[in-house]
Task: inverse folding
């Protein structure tokens, strides 16, 4: 598999880099994180104009028909800029789930609105006692005429405070931890009986716990097959985790660039130029080629992860010291050069 970016993907990467460097510096991010909304509504509209919100959706539903590598390009830049907008939750996670599992009527109603930047969705699939186990669903769904009534709580729903809809997992049969018996419902934010308890996250974003008290939904609001929603939720979460890995890659790249810039400009110690060279070498040696990763990802995790760890560890042999006694020059010297604020 060739992981080199196409010309269109490189152009998209360049556009995002320019946008972030011009309009999204760290001070701007701090002010947005402290704002009531928690992100930039202007930036969200700009993403819609650039086609970012339509990227993974089919053209027949107002999308562009992009692929996973296109999303990878965007998520890397989301990480580099530490963007606060709910791109991952609305477009990648919930948008991808609706694209893959919802009925055509729901797709026609929601996907063009997401692509235009007029609608946001959050996934409410985790519960406080579930320990991030998607099959742990105590929230119940009971038949009521031609529809359903949902009762229960959902925890840590990312980007919930700004969401217009929620994808809520609820159980209509089976034990709390059974894989079968789980259905997925589309719930409007203003549906009677739905209450949000919002709070900021450690990263500066927003989340909320949801309380559903006999919330009535129509039968058409169900996503996928009744009582068989776990597989589509797990698939969407897996895709979302892959996108988060791309975001993490962007964060690491930004940290590397900031650290190297600091090492080049700090003049307190004479040996910083040597540190800069060593840092560059270490970074290049531990940056694994994308094509090698493509080979590894076809292997099961029990095989691929040890291989990756061994490969990284091979670049960092144990240091050879002639004496166990620390050298006076390093033992007495403060380590302020390791911190940008030193």
Result:
């Amino acid at each position: 598999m060739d992981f080199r970016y196409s010309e269109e993907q490189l152009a998209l990467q360049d556009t995002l880099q320019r946008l972030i460097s011009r309009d999204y510096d760290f001070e701007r991010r701090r002010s947005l994180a402290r704002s009531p909304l928690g992100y930039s509504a202007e930036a969200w509209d700009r993403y819609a104009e650039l086609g970012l919100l339509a990227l993974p959706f089919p053209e027949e539903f107002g999308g562009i028909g992009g692929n996973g590598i296109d999303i990878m390009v965007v998520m890397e830049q989301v990480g580099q800029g530490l963007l606060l907008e709910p791109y991952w939750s609305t477009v990648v996670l919930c948008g991808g789930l609706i694209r893959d599992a919802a009925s055509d009527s729901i797709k026609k109603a929601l996907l063009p609105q997401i692509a235009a930047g007029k609608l946001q969705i959050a996934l409410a699939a985790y519960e406080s006692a579930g320990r991030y186990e998607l099959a742990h669903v105590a929230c119940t769904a009971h038949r009521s005429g031609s529809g359903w009534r949902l009762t229960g709580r959902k925890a840590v729903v990312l980007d919930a405070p700004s969401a217009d809809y929620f994808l809520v997992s609820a159980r209509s049969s089976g034990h709390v931890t059974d894989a079968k018996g789980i259905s997925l419902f589309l719930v409007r934010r203003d549906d009677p009986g739905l209450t949000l308890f919002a709070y900021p996250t450690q990263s500066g974003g927003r989340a909320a716990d949801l309380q559903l008290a006999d919330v009535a939904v129509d039968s058409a609001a169900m996503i996928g097959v009744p009582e068989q929603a776990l597989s589509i939720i797990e698939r969407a979460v897996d895709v979302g985790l892959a996108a988060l890995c791309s975001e993490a890659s962007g964060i690491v790249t930004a940290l590397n660039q900031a650290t190297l810039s600091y090492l080049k400009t700090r003049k307190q110690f004479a040996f910083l130029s040597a540190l800069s060279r060593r840092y560059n070498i270490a970074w290049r040696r531990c940056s694994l080629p994308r094509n090698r990763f493509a080979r590894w990802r076809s292997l099961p995790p029990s095989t691929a992860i040890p291989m990756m760890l061994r490969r990284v560890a091979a670049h960092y042999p144990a240091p050879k010291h002639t004496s166990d006694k620390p050298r006076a020059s390093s033992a007495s010297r403060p380590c302020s050069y390791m911190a940008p604020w030193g």
